[in-house]
Amino acid sequence: MQFSLSSSPHNRVRRDTASVMRAVCYACIPGIMAQVWFFGWGVMIQLMLAIATALITEAGIMKLRRRNAKRILSDYSAVLTALLLAVSIPPLAPWWLIVIGTFFSIAIVKQLYGGLGFNMFNPAMGGYVMLLISFPLAMSMWLPVQSMALYPYNLTDALSVIFTGFSVSGYDITQLRLGIDGVTQATPLDAVRSSLLLGETYSEALQAPIFTSESGLSHGWAWVALAYLVGGLFLLWRKFISWHMPISMLAGVILTSGFLNMIMPDASGGVLFHLFSGAVLFGAFFIVTDPVSGSTTPKGRIIFGALIGFWTVIIRTFGGYPDAVAFAVLLMNIAVPLIDYYTQPRTYGARS
Amino acid sequence: MEAFAKIDILDRVDGAAVVEAIKAGQLHDFPGGVHPPEAKLLSNQAPIASMPVPKTLYIPLKQHAGIQGSLAVAVGDKVKKGQPLTHSSHPFAVPVHASTSGTIIEITAHSSAHASGLPESTIILEPDGAEEWHIMPPFDDYRSVEPVKLIERICDAGISGLGGAGFPTHIKTQHDHDVECLIINGIECEPYISSDDRIMREHAWQIKQGIDILRYLVKPKEIIIAIENNKPEAFEALKTACSSDASITMASVPTKYPAGGEKQLIKALTGHEVPRSGLPMDIGCMMFNVGTCFAIADAIIYGKALVQRVVTLTGEALDMPQNVWALLGTPMSDLLSFAKYQPTKQKRHKVIMGGPMMGFAVANDSVPVVKITNCVLVPAADELPDIDDEKPCIRCGYCTDACPAGLLPQQLYWYSKAKDYPKAEEYALADCIECGACAYVCPSEIPLVQYYRQAKAEIKAQLDEQQKSEKAKLRFEQRQARLEADKKAREEKHRKAAEARKAAMENNGGDAKAKIAAALARAKAKKQQAAKATNSDTSSTDNNESSE
């Protein structure tokens, strides 16, 4: 009797790429729910648009490359990229914005480099930075927390604004951005940034209505960040991601912002402000943990994460954009081969 | 503690300190490792069974890591159980023996118990059912026997490491100084396998006898028996067997694959590492498997050669998974039918020799049990996943976290796949122990170990080719040098001959002048003589002969 042959090992964990990608998508659910709760339905429509664009783009490219599209699409990596990009842009941004961004992420940043596993840059962040640079106005149209908005919107309004530019009642995006005080409500990062540019101190900046108190925490935004933290802790707990990158990135943010705030307390934000504003907590667990474009050695992951944290705070404080997670990530993506090369672990039995 | 910081982990271990730490419950961790489902309960519940003698035994001439011995029998010979079939003619040759009494019906190439399944020289034995033993004289009081005699016996009994590597045991036992820690390996970290577990539970006393013999031979400062903490019964059995012997330390090692690997276990017990491309002896450690200890006692105390071993028959496609004493040379077909193999429970008919992590799929059911066969695993259809859907590497690094050798499996994969072998070697491909932990955790289902094996094989082939061409080059250069030397010699000879001729000519020429001169002188003299003739003086012409 002849037997079939195969190579060892004959067993493996039943956790494949697709299930890892799906788990990361699921872990975004608390954050997405918080975004919907505080900033309305817009994010859900952006999500649908992004996922549809990502799947169609990837399928088209697979067709061009004569690969099995179904097999590639079912790894869920395109869905995850779309999701990460969709939650990063203003919820009522026009439809073409997310379509262009997602197309760029999938077609240029991911597939032109060879597809999953070969892309040098984080696809979602590549798309995000492209949008930020190309469409700065549309990308700054963030909404007020809905409970503090002059004109809260509903699902049909959201559809209408995204596709036509006007809500059902005829408001455009600038009107929808007004707070109950009749003033456009800035994001926490914008509020502090513009305040400091006007020559005010950091504690004066914290007087803006978006902040809850002197702590630097903000209405809505801090809760969204917290919700992403919950999802991230789930990923850590189930070992879908290793602790190295998130923890080192947060440490990088804490140390850098703590130090800057110590030496220039009036001109830079505090630790809590930096942690809970913008994309820091979301980025720590969902962006820097992208395995493909990150460092792979144990020491390298820590350096990679910590430097992203460092650059995020530095660019936020001294650079031209309010948030900087995406820039920091892309910057460190470039450094990955160098980091990996110089952080090879010591082999068993080798002299260090 | 301050002393601890100074210890170089590649230095020799200090046996006393190691034992003290183990007794205080301090073990070390080795990097990486995985926790696959152990699945040991499937086979380890019943005592080791005896099998009926097979109709035919296939005894390969080489069953260990080394070279085969020279044939000592011929077709048609009647042999007794335990009679040597080959002789050891080289330090790395270990003899094989007739596993039972019977007749040798053929000596031919037969499917080997090896991943390649390539045919190897095999003695085919037809048992007569008499089970008549050929016993070597037992050493009742081996302590009064010279160690070299015992080592010779260990070799004659055909013992090579039964843990899986199959290194000739007698070579290791020749070291009798500088052994700080003699480590007895009862870890058995591969999932499914329970042959060591059962032999420890049932034959702890004989294992202890084997350990005593090893102690007499290698004179270790300390003896440590290491057993994974998922085998409490085996631990208790050996603890009881060794309870009167204060010099033996029992170590319960946390379950983690591959804790039983030689290097990993040394790290776990001592905190030290075997230097790269070095041996455990370099840091004062020596390791034997529990089954090997049992076989050593068999050979020395009972005079029996290694003719059988415990084999775990397991997997859900077997209706009666269990451990058996299998004669070496027993074909798979006998084992499978003994354990009630149900082919219908498999989608693809697959039989693995060894465990799910490092075992290899056997080619057919005539492949025999050999000295390193610790397990035959026959998985049901969904018991172990088929691994054939390789996807792109997403650089997740799970493999790096799992590697017990501290390597970067993913980089090794890239370089192996790209056939960039110098780079693969730079990333220490040679240090890969092929444990399979990386491929086990890979979410992209990449058969990493297969890539490494291919790369290693090609590097070896390249090296062989290089050595061959270097040899050829050397031969060519030697030939050139020889031709050159011949030419030189010839030229020299010619030159000398020419010189000789010239010299001769010159000499001859000189002679002529001298002769002429002499002749002239003679003539002159004669004239003078003639002139003086009147003086009639006969003090005659002198001697110009000397110039001749």
Task: Give a structural overview.
By secondary structure, chain A is mainly α. Chain A contains 17 helices and no strands. The model of chain A has no long low-confidence stretch (mean pLDDT 92). Chain B has a six-stranded mixed β-sheet with strand order 1-13-12-16-14-15, with helices on both faces. A four-stranded antiparallel β-sheet of chain B has the order 2-7-6-4, with no helix packed on it. Among the domains of chain B are: 191 residues, NADH-ubiquinone oxidoreductase 51kDa subunit (Rossmann fold, 3-Layer(aba) Sandwich); 103 residues, no CATH class. Chain B is built from 15 helices and 16 strands. In chain B, helix 6 crosses helix 7, helix 6 crosses helix 9 and helix 12 packs across helix 15. Chain B is an alpha/beta fold and 548 residues long. The N terminus and C terminus of chain B are likely disordered. In chain B, strand 6 and strand 7 form a beta hairpin. Chains A and B meet through helix 1 of A and strand 15, helix 14 and helix 15 of B.
Largest sheet of chain A: none
Helices of chain B, by number, come to 15
Helical amount of chain A: 55-70%
Write the element-wise H/E pattern of chain A from the N-terminal end onward.
HHHHHHHHHHHHHHHHH
Number of domains of chain A: 2
Rg of chain B computed from alpha carbons, rounded to a whole number of angstroms? 37 Å
> How far apart are the termini of chain A?
51 Å
Structural class of chain B: alpha/beta
What is the arithmetic mean of pLDDT of chain B?
89
Reported by name, the CATH topology of one domain in chain B is Rossmann fold
Number of helices of chain A: 17
Number of strands of chain B: 16
